[in-house]
Each structure stands twice: as C-alpha cells, then as structure tokens.
Amino acid sequence: MSDFKMVRGIYGTGADAKEKYNYIPDGGMNNVLKSWHSKQAERGVWCSPSSLTMCPRVVWLKLHKVEPTNTMGWGTQQRMMLGRQFEDLFAKQLDDEGILLHHWKDNPGDIVEKFSMGKGETLCEGVPDYLLKFNDTVCVSDAKTSRSDSFGYVPIDAPEIWQDGGWYKYKIQLTAYFMLCIENREWFIKHKLSVPKRCHLFSYALDDGIVRREIEWEPSEEEKAEVKRLIVRFNQAMTAKECPACECTEFDRKFCSYGTKTDEFAKVCDACCDDSLITKG
Which residue in 2, 90, 236, 263 has the most C-beta neighbors within 10 A? Predict the structure, then answer.
C-alpha cells in the first residue's frame, strides 16, 4: 500500500474524509504569509518581453486601474516566488560548471540596467536571465519552473510544444530577449561578452528536482516579426482612448485577470474581459 493510500485511509471515505484530507490550518504561518503578500507593491504596466502576449483589453483595464475579477491568491504568489529563488540557484550551478557567461540578477532591490529597443509604439524594455556558452554556442537563456504533473499536458519538442499557450508565451518572451541583446550589442562589447546566436529555454519541476523540458533554437524572421507586432499592439493599448477589443485566446481566458467562472466549482475561468468592465475604467 502506498503512502498516499495510507494517508487517505486515516480519514476513511466520503465527503468528510475528503475535507479532512484537504485540511489547511487557519491562522499561524498562513496568516503571516498572506499578510506579507498583501503589502507587496504591484508590478507596473509597461511593454516587456514577459507581458507581450497580454490581451490589449487587459493592458487597458490594468492601466486604468479597474479592479480585477480574478485575482491571484497569495498561495500562488508564494509558489511563483520559488522560480526567482531557483533562478539564482541555477546561476550558481551554471557558473560552477563553467557554462555561465553572465547572470542578469533582477531580484527586488537589485540595481540592474534594462535593455531597451525602439521608441513610442515600438518600445520594449526588459532584462534576460542568463547568457550561456551552451553546446559551444552562446545563448540567451531563460529558466521556468512548474509542477512535474503539469508536463503530462505539454508536448516534448518543438514545434509541437509551441502549440501550448504557456510555452508559446515563453517563446515570444525569449525571442524578445534575443532581439534586445542584438539591439544592445554595445553593452556586450563593453563587458567583453559575445552576443547570443541562439535561444535556450528550460523548465524545472519543483517537486522532483528535474528539468522536464529544454528547447534550443535560432529565432526565425517570422518569430521576430511577430514580436514586433505584439510590441506595437501592447503600446497602442497603453495609449488607447477607448478600450480595445478582447483578444484573449482559450489559454489566456483560463487565467485572465478579468476572467469569470460560470461554474462555481471550476478551477479556471471560462469567460473574460466583459464589456461591463469598460465603464469602470
């Protein structure tokens, strides 16, 4: 009998057993963590590689400080913080193995120079994770984290993996970082570093300690053009006098800040960006 079944067995069967099995203590450390997260400053709205796929309506509503209908819980925020902690750990491990050329450490309180390209509608700013000498090629690299069970729903290789909404977002993000590096080649010359030739993306399973997906590629002209289109779309939404139309995909809708759940027991949203929100902007 597995440990899982033994734990379930303690509480028997039925609704009461399920409630006990999923028991979470009130107060104590949970209150401390919840309180801490409630005091953290919200991230501003600007055109960065990580925000390029954001729906134009969501950009507009956030900029006009419309109250979200689907807020991220403090527990999710706490788990997402682990990604930043692991980024620093990976940097140490990569450095120890002689692979790391540069780590753009960007934790709260760190002073880091953002790369930028374009101006006005074509402006984009951001900071990559790593510059690596990987497989004898200099790459701009980005680290992601997730649960091991989530990879059961994700294709293994490109191009199929880009059909997943989350991984498409990662591809756009890293392609934008690649373009920022090329645009800011003077910084690399100044620091005696090579400009990246390829992109490198990997995702680490938090619960079993294993990298579950790893993709390396050279961005195509079509991918670069798509990044440029999304930059313009984002910046136009920032300056729009009227609220843009919703362009959330099925994937975006599930986690949209302005999403709603028609089924009270649903874990993700099935509708989003309702027109009624516009009047609150």
Answer: 90
Contact, 132 vs 102, CB < 8 A?
A: no
| 51 burial via Cβ count (<10 Å: 0-12, 13-18, 19+) | buried
pLDDT, tens only, 89-136: 999 999 999 999 999 987 766 777 889 999 999 999 999 999 999 888
Terminal alpha carbon distance of the chain: 56
DSSP label at residue 20? H
pTM beyond 0.85: the answer is yes
Strand 137-146 and strand 271-272: pairing?
unpaired
Within 10 angstroms of residue 7's Cβ, the number of other Cβ atoms is 10
In whole angstroms, what is the distance from residue 60 CA to residue 66 CA? 9
Q: Give the span between the Cα atoms of 38 and 271, in whole angstroms.
A: 26
Q: How far apart are CA 87 and CA 84, in angstroms?
A: 5
- More confident of the two residues 18 and 170: 170
d(CA 129, CA 204) in angstroms, rounded, equals 15
DSSP-derived 3-state class of residue 194:
coil
How many residues make up the chain in this entry? 281
Residues linked to residue 139 through DSSP beta bridges, in sequence order: 132, 198
